[in-house]
């Protein structure tokens, strides 16, 4: 009889690479430019460092929740135990879609990067080929997908750090810049810097495939440190190469411009390669984590059981294929319309609201299940989780209200509310039928 459960084979390094890779999206290059704009120049690195420290507190929440209930359903289980079942389904399904948002937004940057680097090949072809390659590697098994994630994530972070150091080393008179000059909008810079780390927690749906689920918190904290170092150095190199931001603000490929300024053609192609690795880590890690989440929802009949089927390599291939197809369709729409900011703001808003919710869940579950063993506990309880909840609630609302066009219209908020309405209708109308059908099938299959 075929095995019907996931395989526990992943090591600590894959927890680090998945957490770091999901956060290290190509859109981070655009975010680094925005952070520099608000920070007023060379203090952008400091804004990113402070943002990373704040994110550590959100990481502590996810670590405690993972220690309580390590599951492929992750946030679905935590909200159900901490609040209620219906709210858990709606919010977890909305949360799941943020992975597709990030992949589509990353595809937008990838397409523009390679349109600039290799104009003869259509941008959408690059996106399709890369998504197809990542989907195929995922379908080959968790070890193959983990190896792809490890190699790309560590190459990305390592070369980004090395490139930034080289760029800084080739800049004359580094002492002329003001690295601790906090501008008028420095707090806004910190808020935007937080979004560079968004997605680090999506390693938690892989809890059933790690050799030890306690490796996930360790991996997340190591990943946050690596992201802060890599993108902090990149923002510093960026602001030194373009001290006044000229040529970067309206560019979709600031990393290529910085590469050209630092090392000429070699730097240009180096940064094009790094952009490719960011897409590989985001596409691969996103599909890897989200497909397990879809599998877990289908396993409890919140989605059609078809998505809970595993192939012979113990991969939820049907869920994988659906997510890849949705990501490609959305990527095409975003590339054609240029509305990448809509997805970035919507994704950032949803993630920030989830970070706030994670604090509420930690407090709720401490009260509801005080005696349940926890291999990890948040520090500074209950003050720290309470402050994190308030902070990220404000950031989430701000992200959703941020205009996505010159008209000042909050498109991200409307987009978010539309998804919430659709998911609520699905939970109220479709899920009860799926569960009823499950009971009927169990009744028919009862032994005589």
TrEMBL record:
Residue stretches spanning the membrane: 12-33, 45-69, 89-111, 117-139, 151-169, 189-207, 219-242, 268-298, 319-336, 342-366, 378-397, 409-431
Residue ranges constituting the Amino acid permease/ SLC12A domain according to the UniProt record: 25-402
Cell location: Membrane
UniProt-listed InterPro entries: AA-permease/SLC12A_dom, APC_superfamily
Membrane topology (UniProt): Multi-pass membrane protein
Pfam families, alphabetized: AA_permease
Any one Gene Ontology BP term: transmembrane transport
UniProt entry keywords in alphabetical sequence: Membrane, Transmembrane, Transmembrane helix
GO cellular component, one term: membrane
PANTHER family: AMINO ACID TRANSPORTER-RELATED (PTHR42770), MEMBRANE PROTEIN (PTHR42770:SF7)
Protein name per its UniProtKB record: Amino acid permease
Species, as recorded: Sulfobacillus acidophilus
